[in-house]
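Subject: DNA-binding transcriptional MerR regulator structure
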Amino acid sequence: MRIGEVAAAAGVSVRALRYYEEQGLLTAERSPSGQRHYPESAVDRVRFIQLLYSAGLPSRSVLRILPCMDSGRTTPGMRAKLAEERDRVQAQIDELTGARDRLNEIIRIAEEHHEASPPAECSWAS
């Protein structure tokens, strides 16, 4: 498959595929004229790379995970690292949830103290 075909099938940009290749996440054979040619399996690989990135993993982690996934054999260390990443994301969710809850409380208090014509210094126009 040519680069544009893989990009369209996987739902990513051609630029993303070039980046994945630069990072060592994806390989392509080159034609005599220099065009990239990917195997059909590249589409699934790109989708999996996208999944890893969307989970918040950096390129260096993705690079370490892909060989394990390719071989179908994961290590306890890799699974522990993924669990650490999940826990990190959960901590961020918990922190944001707390911030949202505090904002909801502030909004509730503000609504209790609203006036038809507040002083000019109370204006928060954007």
